[in-house]
Structures are given as C-alpha cells and as structure tokens.
C-alpha cells in the first residue's frame, strides 16, 4: 500500500513538473495584476479597456493557465481512481496531457482570436495561434509522443513559444 501511495505521489510530482516546465516566470507582472484586478471588479473593467492586445492576451492566457493548473491534478486523480491504481504512470500523464492540456491550449487560441486581432498583425498572430493549435493537436492525438518530446528536450512548444515571445504574447504558448 505504501508503495502505491509513493508511486502516486511521484506521478503527481512529475505532472506538476511538466506543468511548471511549460510555464512562464513566477514574477511575471501579468500574474500580479490579476490578483489586484480580482480584488476590484470595477478596476478590472477599466484596466482591460486600457490594455494593448498583447497585454490583454497575456492576461487572458495567464487566467486560462491557472485554470489548467487547477484542473490537471483533478484529471490525474479521476483517471487514477477509474483505473483502480493499475494504470501505468506514463498512461496517467498522457491522459492529463490529452484531456486537460489540449483543451486548455485550444481554449487559449479561441479566446485570443475572440479578442480581435489588431489590424496589420493578423498574419503574425494567426501564425502563432496555428502553431499553438498544432501543439494542442499533438497533445490530443499523440500524448505519448508529446511526453516523449518533452522529456527528451525536443520541446513541442518550441516554435509556438518562440513566435509568441517575439510578438509579446509568450504566455499563450505555454501550458
């Protein structure tokens, strides 16, 4: 029994490490502004009217990342419970990638598009969003390959992250 508990804790730590590895720096200003905006709903409305597209997209992607980080352990726990603890660790990780990460990435793409891409930036932003969709597709259809690439330094986010960082919406190309 102790061995099973240790295995589960190890897997949870591995999934958490995957989530952290895909994230941005902890001292990002967009995350800090979320805390202040949450305290005052009226301030959030006036702030979002003043934000540039990259700032607004970053804020949105940070919020969706927090949602994903909260959902991933729940998916993990549900899958572990469904299997009665008999599912191999790699399959558990793949289920989290497939169920939580892929949908989170697609939600980022959909909501960033819904913000309204600035005129003149359409080609660049659409290329970024297409690259993120490619990562979401890979996470959905080939989660084992996605995990293999993650653990072998062939990062599936590389292209999307590079383009998004260059434009100023790097958080949208992270888990």
Task: Give the structure's gist in a few sentences.
The protein is mostly helical. Helix content is 79%, strand content 0%.
Walk me through what this model shows:
By secondary structure, the protein is an all-alpha fold. It is built from eight helices and no strands. The model is unreliable at 1-46 (pLDDT under 50).
Q: What is the fold's blueprint, element by element?
A:
Blueprint: H1 2-21, H2 29-39, H3 41-50, H4 53-83, H5 89-115, H6 122-141, H7 143-151, H8 158-167
Helix pairs in contact: 1-4, 1-5, 2-3, 2-4, 4-5, 5-6, 5-7, 6-7, 6-8
Write down the secondary-structure element order.
HHHHHHHH
Classify the secondary structure makeup into a structural class: mainly alpha
Q: In percent, how helical is the residue content?
A: over 70%
Give the biggest sheet. none
Number of strands: 0
What overall form do the CA principal axes indicate? Answer: elongated
Number of H- or I-type helical stretches: 8
Low-confidence stretches: 1-46
Strand content: under 5%
Gyration radius, rounded: 17 Å
User: Termini, distance in Å?
Assistant: 33 Å
**Integer average pLDDT:** 79
